[in-house]
Specification:
Blueprint: H1 11-26, H2 31-38, H3 42-49, H4 57-66, H5 72-77, H6 91-97, E1 102-107, H7 118-126, H8 134-147, H9 150-153, E2 158-164, H10 165-169, H11 175-188, E3 194-199, E4 213-217, E5 223-228, E6 233-236, H12 239-255, H13 259-272
Parallel strand pairs: 1-2, 2-3
Antiparallel strand pairs: 1-4, 4-5, 5-6
Length: 273
């Protein structure tokens, strides 16, 4: 499903959870005693204290009242940032994304996360081995959908995508999911700051056979790349390496279908379903 997911809590979630646990123990409550006082399950209390779950406002209010009513938990909760669904190795890239002036993505395995409709994300989750627990699956879906607000929140950022035709030929999730995916891609391609190109399955030249590429440029003209594998990812800042990947991506764009022809292909594929 792409490696930008990992059930790995953020530092602020873990810190807040440890704070709740310390206050609870200071007041002499076990988790079993504390849970009914705040009307949450012992499992939920444990998940919050271990930084695996974001505490909602109801929990924070109840816990603060039970643990002294000082307002400390309310104030601490304001500084919690979960980044649900983002792998630890992907978080730095995700932070850079929100301030980039340009983002370029080539994918040969699956539709890029920024272009995935919810039904496609869930279809990817269904194929994950081992299966994800329900709460982690929902966190992944929420994170993926939240990332897509970049298109709206950063209208002056340019987003360029090159996706292999073979990825779209794969009927992942069945016909309904494929229809939803193609409609989603066609809608995204109408956005002024989004360019989508399809790399045809039948081609004699291909500059990126070594794998996916992600590139971005920051407002201060710094360039970064990101490389990922099955269970790992690497942020690349070395100028020579980024320049090499940028050259490959530029060549690939010249080999792919034009944006207009890509839309035409998507419409034909949509009509065949």
């Amino acid at each position: 499903m792409g490696v930008d997911w990992e059930p790995d809590p953020s530092d602020s979630l873990k810190t807040f959870g440890a704070f709740v646990q310390a206050l609870r123990e200071h007041h002499g409550y076990t988790r079993e005693q504390f849970a009914p006082l705040v009307s949450f399950s012992v499992h939920t209390v444990a998940s919050i204290e271990l930084g695996r779950r974001m505490a909602d406002e109801v929990f924070v209010e109840r816990a603060d009242r039970v643990l002294g009513d000082t307002g400390a938990l309310r104030r601490a909760a304001k500084h919690v940032s979960r980044q649900p669904g983002l792998a630890s190795w992907f978080r730095r890239w995700a932070q850079l994304e929100r301030h980039a002036v340009s983002l370029c993505t080539y994918e040969c395995r699956l539709v890029p996360g920024l272009l995935q409709p919810e039904s496609y994300v869930r279809a990817l989750c269904d194929e994950d081995v081992p299966p994800l627990p329900d709460d982690e699956l929902e966190a992944l879906v929420k994170a993926r959908m939240q990332r897509q607000t970049l298109f709206r929140d950063e209208p002056r950022t340019t987003f360029d995508f090159v996706v292999e035709e073979a990825v779209l030929m794969r009927r992942l999730g069945g016909t309904d999911v494929c229809v939803d995916l193609l409609d989603h891609l066609l809608a995204a391609s109408t956005l002024r700051n989004v360019t989508l190109q399809i790399m045809p399955a039948r081609t004699e030249h291909h500059a990126c056979l070594a794998g996916p590429i992600r590139l971005l440029e920051t407002p201060d003209a710094q360039r970064y790349a990101y490389s990922e594998g099955q269970e790992s990812g690497r942020l690349i800042a070395d100028r020579k390496e980024v320049a090499k990947l940028s050259l490959r991506y530029a060549r690939l764009r010249s080999q792919a279908l034009s944006p207009q022809d890509s839309v035409g292909l998507l419409k034909r594929m949509r009509g065949e379903l």
